[in-house]
Write a structure and sequence with these properties.
This protein is an alpha/beta fold. It is built from 13 helices and eight strands. An eight-stranded parallel beta sheet has the order 7-6-5-4-3-2-1-8. Helix 3 packs antiparallel against helix 13.
Length: 314
């Protein structure tokens, strides 16, 4: 975990960490939202749109996080991730399949050797209301079952109460428990209330060793938005400029259409550049987005939309 030594003084105590995080520049909410809206109006030509659709498909963490999930449903989702359009072998596979930890073994078996990753939510997802011991056991069990990536939730109650060191220590402990698995840290931006809090959470997660910072669980009313994602992209850009360490970004929840996905890719390109236009550094957490991307992809190829049975309903 190489990042922490550079911030040893910052993380020495709750007071030093609070001083650092509250010393970050305040967010101009009006300016942030105006820039996000402006970038969302960019027009994409046909050839660029085809490229963007394939890129978006390759960045999806195809997700099922329901109490009714079964091994069969997870295997079917893995098959769709591997070959999203069985009628067109040029369609790229998705980046990962994201499931609960007890389903990770079935995803890992179905995806073995494919290059499609197994992502598992952990740490008492989505609320995070459990002891650290329980959370770390959750992480270790998911990794043992075959998870390549861990999506953890922060303790929003501790964060909002200003107990930043508790959140930092927990992320560090989860990072260690995850071993070689990449760690995505979920802030649940819809519960953080302010853009200043999202900026602070972004820096806190990165200082603690996150490989990715992620907007949301998809389980609350407000999930990924262009504005909160833009803010997090600015944070990873500035963090790399300061430390030389590149961190990924994952907006999740509420991104359902190709038009939405393209807007987010424009945000990435205009804010952090081509270095992040790769599934190793940018992901979409989504379940229904893939279907719309496939429909739009086929429309570009044939000039018409297919019937309602063209894509599977997950």
């Amino acid at each position: 975990m190489p990042i922490a030594p550079a911030f040893a003084d910052v993380t020495a105590s709750d007071s030093t960490l609070r001083r650092y995080l509250h010393g970050l520049p305040g967010v101009d909410a009006v300016g942030l939202e105006a820039r996000a809206a402006s970038l969302g109006t960019r027009s994409i030509k046909t050839t660029a749109k085809a490229y963007a659709i394939d890129l978006a498909i390759s960045m999806i963490d195809l997700t099922t996080l329901e109490g009714a999930d079964t091994p069969g449903k997870v295997r079917a989702l893995a098959a769709k991730a591997l070959r999203p359009d069985p009628t067109d072998r040029t369609t790229p596979a998705t980046a990962a399949v994201c499931v609960y930890g007890d389903m990770a073994q079935y995803a890992a078996s179905a995806l073995a050797g494919s290059g499609v990753k197994v992502a598992s939510v952990a740490t008492a997802f989505p609320a995070g209301r459990a002891s650290l011991e329980v959370k770390l056991t959750d992480v270790r069990d998911a990794v043992a079952a075959g998870a390549d990536e861990i999506d953890m939730v922060i303790d929003r109650g501790a964060f909002l109460a200003g107990r930043y060191l508790k959140v930092y220590d927990e992320i560090r402990a989860v990072k260690e428990a995850a071993g070689s698995a990449r760690l995505k840290v979920i802030f649940e931006t819809g519960e953080l209330s302010t853009y200043d809090n999202i900026r602070r959470a972004s820096w806190l997660g990165m200082i603690a060793g996150a490989d990715f910072i992620k907007t949301s669980t998809g389980k609350v009313g407000v999930n990924a938005t262009p504005a909160n994602t833009l803010l997090m992209l600015e944070a990873v850009r500035d963090f790399r400029a300061q430390t030389g360490v590149q961190i990924g970004v994952k907006p999740a929840g509420g991104i359902r259409t190709s038009k939405d996905a393209v807007k987010f890719l424009v945000l990435v390109n205009e804010t952090v550049g081509e270095d992040w236009l790769d599934s190793h550094w940018f992901r979409f957490g989504a379940s229904s987005l893939l279907n719309d991307l496939l429909m739009q992809r086929q429309k570009l190829a044939t000039g018409r939309y297919s019937g309602p049975d063209y894509v599977t309903v997950d």
